[in-house]
Amino acid sequence: MPRLGLLLSPYRNLTTLCCAALALHPHVQVMNHGFARIEDAGGLKFTVDQTQENLDYFSDMLVSLSEGGRQGDYGGSIIYSHAFEKAGVKEAYQSMIGDFQIKQDIKAVVWKDGGRLREYLKQRDISPLVLAEKFPSLCFISPVRNLLDNAYGLKKFYETIGLQAYVTPSLPDLEMQSILRYIVACHYEFWTYARTMPDRFFMFGENDMGDDVLARLAEFLGVRASGAWTRTAGPLFLSAVHHDHAPEHAAMLQQIIAEPGAYCAEFLQFIRPLSG
Q1: Which residues contact 197 (CB under 8 A, 6 or more apart)?
Q2: Average pLDDT over residues 171-196
Q3: Are 13 and 112 within 8 A, CB to CB?
Q4: Bridge partners, residue 111, by sequence
Q5: Would you state the pLDDT for residue 242?
Q6: In which element (H, E) is residue 230 found?
Q7: In sequence order, what DSSP letters do the residues of 116-178 get, joined into one string?
Q8: Residue-level pLDDT at 235
């Protein structure tokens, strides 16, 4: 069975950029969004009835649904995501993959709907650690964008589509303090998973993004990072969207991460370079 990599992080957190780079790999199949369609068709049954048959059904569904599709929640092929509107991305895909939306030799399948998946598991008290222990082919991925850039992007996102019911238990309103607390909590949660099972949870910061992280991500997914792929995908694996940070928001974030006893020293060492 192919390695199955699930994004598990807040929205507007460089996940589309990450998955666009992975989609340029000839052996990595990427499904973008489509949460409702997958849940309605029983694709998430494996999270409760944890059999290999149910996981295989889910993996096969990701592959079949990643042909065609459209931008937004409906989802489908990653080529319809907003990352492919960036100059050079469609051309890079064409040069590496051609006209295929489903790869001919799939060794890893990736699903990018981490914001929804995180809340789905959390509200049902399903631990990603338990799933990883149960299924040897299952792994989880989380980029970490600059926290303030992520907060501004997330605020705009939910203001545009409306604050969705699936996320309100974790993010009850769109006040900046609530958004920042939500983002930091998500990352701390994933960081604890990665400390427990580093071979099944891959976390990286925006400040480290580049060819080395891209190659390690490929290895994590069980595929080879060829020179042709890293040369093509590497320049695209960098965030070009940054915001001016309001001083009061920067001070608010520093206060949140400095709360006594809230976060361990090792996590703070990881997150502080992404907090400015």
Answers
A1: 129, 132, 133
A2: 98
A3: no
A4: 6, 31
A5: 87
A6: helix 227-233
A7: HHHHHHHHTT--HHHHHHH-TTEEEEEEE--HHHHHHHHHHHHHHH---TTTTTT--S--HHH
A8: 85
Residue 256: CA count within 13 A, CB half-sphere: 23
- Give pLDDT, residue 83: 82
Residue 67 burial (CB count, 10 A): 13
Three-class SS state of 21: helix
* Strands 75-77 vs 28-32: parallel, antiparallel or unpaired: antiparallel
Q: Which residue has the tokens 């080529």?
A: 79
CB atoms within 10 A of CB 244: 6
What's the pLDDT tens digit per position in 24-79?
999 999 999 999 999 999 999 999 999 999 999 999 999 999 999 998 899 999 99
Nearest CA-CA partner of 96 in 20, 32, 210: 20
Beta carbons of 13 and 145 less than 8 angstroms apart: yes
Q: Is the CB of residue 138 less than 8 Å from the CB of residue 55?
A: yes
d(CA 107, CA 27): 5
Diameter of the chain measured on Cα atoms: 54
Would you say residue 87 has pLDDT above 90? no
Say how far apart CA 243 and CA 263 lie, in whole Å: 26
Question: CB within 8 A of 112, min separation 6: which ones?
Answer: 7, 15, 16, 18, 19, 30, 31, 32, 33, 78, 81
Q: For residue range 71-86, what is the model confidence (pLDDT) as tens digits?
A: 889 999 999 998 888 8
